[in-house]
Design brief:
- The chain folds into 2 domains: 91 residues, no CATH class; 80 residues, no CATH class.
- 37% of the residues lie in helices and 12% in strands.
- The chain has a 3-stranded antiparallel β-sheet. The protein has a 3-stranded antiparallel β-sheet with strand order 5-4-6.
Length: 186
């Protein structure tokens, strides 16, 4: 009898682990802000998929997607959510973090010239230097404005972004060492 209990416990633990792994994998796959083309007006819209709802359906063959937020809400909250077909077709391609990582690929910082290497989603992230010469963090760009912002922006590394921000927000703390030399002391 004890061997049967141990074997059953092992089988249950393996099945529970597999279910947990699938749920976490689905949750991660659908987590995050996305940019889609709204089927109603053919313009970019920022959406989020209800990743917890998808993860809860870990045992179904094709989990049912639903929106948890949209940049067109609350005015268009009753839409049919046809935009989800874009997410189903290419879940990673419309993910904001994926779009940004691809945008930085092969580029260098517009300020210091340092090339961008692999961008870690857990560490410090580069920023975007907008057309008005203000640098902004990724999280400050609304998803529905991401395509237009990136089209007119330049990449800037984290260090240059922080320097730019410091100069803008606390100019009294900045020392300009790029002054022309004083020739009267020669």
């Amino acid at each position: 009898m004890p061997v049967f209990i141990i074997a059953a416990t092992v089988v249950v633990a393996v099945l529970a682990s597999a279910a947990f792994y699938r749920a976490v994998r689905l949750w991660w796959k659908y987590l995050g802000a996305r940019v889609i083309t709204c089927p109603e007006n053919q313009r970019p819209a920022g959406i989020s998929v209800d990743a917890a709802h998808v993860a809860a359906q870990a045992f179904s063959k094709s989990p049912q997607l639903r929106l948890s937020s949209c940049s067109r809400w609350p005015e268009r909250a009753g839409c049919g959510q046809q935009c989800l077909s874009q997410v189903e077709a290419a879940p990673e391609d419309c993910l904001v973090r994926h779009i940004l990582v691809q945008w930085y690929a092969g580029k260098s910082c517009v300020s210091c010239g340092k090339p961008f290497e692999e961008i870690s989603l857990a560490g410090v992230k580069p920023a975007v230097l907008c057309a008005d010469k203000l640098s902004v963090e990724w999280s400050d760009i609304p998803a529905d404005r991401l395509p237009a912002t990136l089209a007119a922006a330049a990449p800037i590394c984290f260090a240059c972004h922080m320097g730019n921000t410091l100069v803008r927000t606390h100019p009294e703390l900045v020392v300009d060492r790029h002054r022309s030399p004083d020739v009267s002391k020669s």
